[in-house]
UniProtKB/TrEMBL annotation:
Pfam families: Fungal_trans_2. GO terms for molecular function: DNA-binding transcription factor activity; transcription cis-regulatory region binding. The keyword Aminoacyl-tRNA synthetase does not apply. Keywords: Nucleus. GO terms for biological process: positive regulation of transcription by RNA polymerase II. One of its GO terms (cellular component) is nucleus. Its main location: nucleus. This is Uncharacterized protein.
Length: 445
């Protein structure tokens, strides 16, 4: 599908004032002003799901960046990282990579200084800086690097001490809530990896900062789907990790343990299916004032994106907690639903729910049959051409590596991909065999 001219005009009218203000900031070096403009106009488009969300995020984040060196430099890091993904010439790429390393180092130094200055610390700015560095480390570092986790843990620590009741500025409170949802989206994907998250969780617990049930089913215009799905993903990841640890410790889980575990899985699956049923039978719910900012076409894309994430949760639950093979009908049905959602969405270089589809498509790719692999490949290639996000390129590279493995479809599993060594999964024994030395620590954000 193609985007409308109305959408393009709307975007152009929302950023001009902010860009004009940036160009007047003579105290910022010209190169950094140029990077700020690139962030506002281009780099952020690959991470927000609507033009209104992009505009509002810029309105909230840029003024705070001008007061926080660590946040400003993290934004510049983000902008340079996006330029690197777009760069074809090796000479230009080398220059950008040097700039990237220098800005990362400078940002980390500023972050440490601001954290130590407890009297003047702006926790909202520090959370934003940590999340931006987290995602850039995820995209730019080696696949085996765990540096992104350090920043995710740092964001978690600051969030845990940020009391929303202490914020009198409504903009600060709005940004804090948005950053909290952003953190939860990253945490949910990290929870699905074999390494999980550093937060200690037991099976079927809530995520670290669960939302109210009524709010959690609103579709988030920043991230493309309902935050309640993050709660499901955290529970699934924690339960899978708990089962694996318990199985490794005892050889085989005892019967009573498995009975209790399966009751928990039944309850969780029923909750996911109930949420999906409500989504199908009711108009989509958005946060206050969000719906009127969206066109009917945009609303439809949000519905499709939300459906894709719901089926992503089902695949993880049924593959990893039910231990169904990827060829099982229930798994393949969800794979095809995700692919149909991707095929039906609007392909655009501008902010839209389409930019959020990396994780569902990657999940579908892990279980895709031969014919569907080509569809996954094509959709991820189209998504990369729209966003120029290095994370998408990495997701496809990892999938291609495993698609060419001669072990066959029955041996593919999410846990042998991100956050683990390249391993073969034997579901009947819940054990892992090392088949390569390099480790991958990656989430398809």
């Amino acid at each position: 599908m193609q985007e409308s001219s109305v959408t393009i005009a709307k975007e152009e009218s929302t950023t001009s004032d902010l860009l004009a203000q940036i160009k007047l900031l003579s105290w910022i070096p010209a190169q950094q002003r140029s990077l700020l403009v690139h962030f506002i106009q281009h780099a952020l488009q690959a991470s927000t799901c609507s033009i209104a969300a992009q505009r509002r995020f810029n309105e909230l984040i840029i003024p705070r960046a001008l007061q926080s060196p660590s946040l400003l430099k993290s934004i510049l890091v983000w902008s340079v990282g996006h330029k690197i993904a777009q760069c074809d010439r090796s000479e230009d790429r080398a220059t950008l990579e040097t700039m990237y390393r220098d800005l990362v180092q400078s940002s980390l130094q500023s972050l440490q200084m601001e954290i130590r200055d407890t009297q003047r610390m702006n926790k909202v700015a520090l959370i934003a800086a940590s999340l931006m560095l987290c995602l850039q480390k995820l995209c730019q570092e080696r696949l085996e690097s765990r540096a992104w986790r350090v920043h995710l843990d740092g964001a978690r620590g600051i969030i845990s001490t940020a009391d929303s009741s202490n914020y009198n500025d409504p903009d600060d409170l709005e940004l804090l809530r948005m950053l909290n949802r952003w953190y939860e989206a990253i945490e949910a994907l990290a929870a699905l990896t074999a390494r999980g998250t550093s937060e200690v969780q037991t099976a079927f617990t809530q995520s670290s900062s669960p939302m109210l049930a009524s709010e959690a089913e609103y579709i988030d215009e920043y991230f493309g789907y309902a935050p309640k799905i993050n709660v499901f993903l955290c529970k699934i990841g924690a339960a899978a990790r708990w089962l694996r640890i318990r199985s490794h410790a005892t050889g085989q889980p005892d019967r009573l343990f498995l009975e209790d575990f399966n009751v928990g899985v039944d309850t969780l699956e029923a909750s996911v299916l109930s949420t999906m049923s409500r989504s199908r039978s009711s108009p989509p719910c958005f946060y206050p004032r969000a719906r009127e900012r969206l066109s009917p076409c945009e609303i439809e894309d949000f519905v499709l994106c939300n459906q894709a994430f719901q089926h992503m949760a089902l695949i993880h639950l049924r593959r990893r907690l039910r231990n169904l093979p990827p060829t099982a009908g229930a798994v393949q049905d969800s794979v095809k639903e995700i692919l149909q959602c991707g095929i039906s969405m609007t392909y655009t270089t501008r902010p839209s729910p389409w930019v959020a589809m990396t994780a569902p498509l990657f999940t579908a790719g892990c279980a895709a049959a031969s014919a569907d692999k080509n569809t996954v490949r094509g959709l991820l290639q189209t998504l990369f051409s729209c966003t120029q996000s290095e994370s998408i390129s990495r997701a496809l590279t990892i999938l291609e590596r495993f698609w060419t493995d001669d072990q066959g479809l029955d041996y593919y599993d999410w846990e042998m991909l991100p956050g683990s060594s390249l391993r073969t999964f034997q579901p009947e024994f819940l054990t892992y065999n090392m088949i390569a030395n390099q480790e991958i620590d990656f989430i398809p954000y």
